[in-house]
Amino acid sequence: MVLGQRLIIILPAYNASKTLERTLGEIPSSIVDEIVLVDDCSTDGTAELARSLGVRHVIEHDRNRGYGANQKSCYDKALELSADLVIMLHPDYQYSPRLIESMAFMAGHGLYQSVLASRILGNGALKGGMPVYKYFFNRILTFTQNLLMGQKLSEYHSGYRLFTAEILQTIPYHQNSDDFVFDNEMLAQVLFHGFRLGEISCPTRYFEDASSINFWRSIQYGWGVLRVSIQYRMHRMGIIQSSLFKKNTPNNGFKR
């Protein structure tokens, strides 16, 4: 636990067998109460390996439902296990699990209700192997999102993030996409409802076994990100009413 708060790590996994053991090996067991792995119909034995490595909560999707759908299952299970703090970490070892303690204590002390591990803070993204085109699009998208959403984040696209249970109980994440833009919809919802969001510098690791979407999927993702940011702005201005920014009700997909 972290300052009396129950900490659960969620691992949205797809074909992560080559990096899973390294990821689990660096998760600080002294403060982590449970680990949840959701396997999105992998073909490399990820779920079986997770169980053999001692992961108690392994959920297997019967078909590949998508990155966003994977996270929905992760967050549902974390709330079912009475989490107070939830950290989403990719099991592909691209992000360092050694930051879990720092992120957890930032929220545990009540400083922030959400924490992002930023690959841009500290100028290490390109040195860590981030492809130049990804870095370029990251910076352009982040600049545009900050303008549209009135924020000053260093990036919106990290897959390493913490949410308190209060956030997960408030935002209607089941209304979000089942694809990669889910991450940005989550952040837009967090910011819309006024939760405090902090950032911490995170080393970047790009290597052969680290998962990454291709160029054309990146383009699709970029358009989705812009759509979400425009929706946010227009909803704020009262021009449209988007279901993304409503609070949870018993009828909008929230599960406990």
Q: What's a quick, concise take on this entry?
A:
This protein has eight helices and seven strands. The protein has helices spanning 20-25, 46-52, 67-80, 100-108, 132-149, 165-170, 182-192, 215-236, and strands at 7-13, 34-39, 57-60, 85-88, 114-118, 161-164, 197-201.
Can you lay out the helices and strands and say which pair or pack?
Layout: E1 7-13, H1 20-25, E2 34-39, H2 46-52, E3 57-60, H3 67-80, E4 85-88, H4 100-108, E5 114-118, H5 132-149, E6 161-164, H6 165-170, H7 182-192, E7 197-201, H8 215-236
Q: On the 0-100 scale, what is the average pLDDT?
A: 93
Helix/strand class? alpha/beta
Number of domains: 1
Shape: globular
| Order of SSEs | EHEHEHEHEHEHHEH
Tell me the name of the CATH homologous superfamily.
Spore Coat Polysaccharide Biosynthesis Protein SpsA, Chain A
Q: What's the story with the biggest beta sheet?
A: 7 strands, mixed
| Global Rg | 17 Å
Q: Strands of the largest sheet, in order across it?
A: 3-2-1-4-6-5-7
Distance between the termini: 21 Å
Number of helices: 8
Helix content: 25-40%
Instruction: Give a count of the beta strands, DSSP E runs of length 2 or more.
Output: 7
CATH class: Alpha Beta
Could you list the spans in which at least 5 consecutive residues all have pLDDT below 50?
251-256
CATH topology: Spore Coat Polysaccharide Biosynthesis Protein SpsA, Chain A
CATH architecture assignment: Alpha-Beta Complex
